[in-house]
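The following record pairs a protein chain with its ligand, nicotinamide-adenine-dinucleotide.
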Amino acid sequence: MSHAEKPLIGHLVIIGVGLIGGSVSLALKRAGIVGRVTGVGRSRDNLELAQKLGIIDAWSHDICEAVRDADVVLLAVPMNAYASVFSAMADSLPASAVVTDAGSTKQTAITAAHQCLPKPERFIAAHPIAGTEQSGAGAAFAELFDKRLTVITPEQGSDTAALALVQQLWEQTGSRVVTMDAAEHDDFLASVSHLPHLAAFALVNAVSRQKSDGHDPFCFAAGGFRDFTRIASSSPEMWRDIALSNRDALLGQLDAFQQELDGLREALLADDAERLLKEFAAAREARETWLAKHGEGL
Ligand code: NAD
């Protein structure tokens, strides 16, 4: 960006400067498309760290004041904070401001925007499909979204200029943007993201609650167990909120998973080697096809 050029986003306000909010800021600064970034949050230590790391230029605890001259506001807070954050900004948000988010479920984000924002048509919901099991500003890095997918879920009445700007914002983080219906997004993510987190939490609990006569079962866990359960180290509060905000889709996916487990149990009970082999081979083939097609950079 030359000095004479106006940045695409003059003032970006990020509510929730954690892994995702912090990484968006770093990626947009890398792209040179933001003038200044204000971070809003509750933890002074986290905000001071974010400023020290150059993630934000200024910070505040006051959402209402911080958004007063915002061009774009990004929500990167847990799903259960949406209604209170939207309500806190409703009276001071400029009519020209565009709002987007990074939350993992989209229907509840859109419902909260309609309930609390004066111009919900200027809220364009988004979900970058990238992350780690770490949280906080200290975990943020500019490359998090490179070559990853970001789903945006505009509605029939969405403002076209707001949509264009939000699409550009997410493209400038380095991600590929796809547009999708919010309900469809929530169904897909229930299966490939939310269900695996529940499975990982359940597996770790099942092992740690195992009765053993003196031995710690974790002593015998190796790389396979670590790979499968990496995401069980994710923030419990964040995943509680994601599970509850995508409850119906997740219940459907849990039922489907339960059926698969029941099938394996039946096969084991019946010593059905052929069925076990068929199920394992089908899973291996599906996984290898997925990796060959989409695995680059994962
Ligand atoms: P994080 O814990 O690293 O950051 C969240 C930040 O929000 C924290 O700094 C916290 O103090 C702050 N916060 C919480 N409640 C707040 C409130 N009421 N007002 C202001 N600030 C508040 O979490 P994260 O991983 O960056 O996740 C943020 C959002 O992004 C979540 O909605 C999550 O579902 C979504 N997301 C996460 C991932 C991932 O892998 N971590 C991936 C994609 C999307």
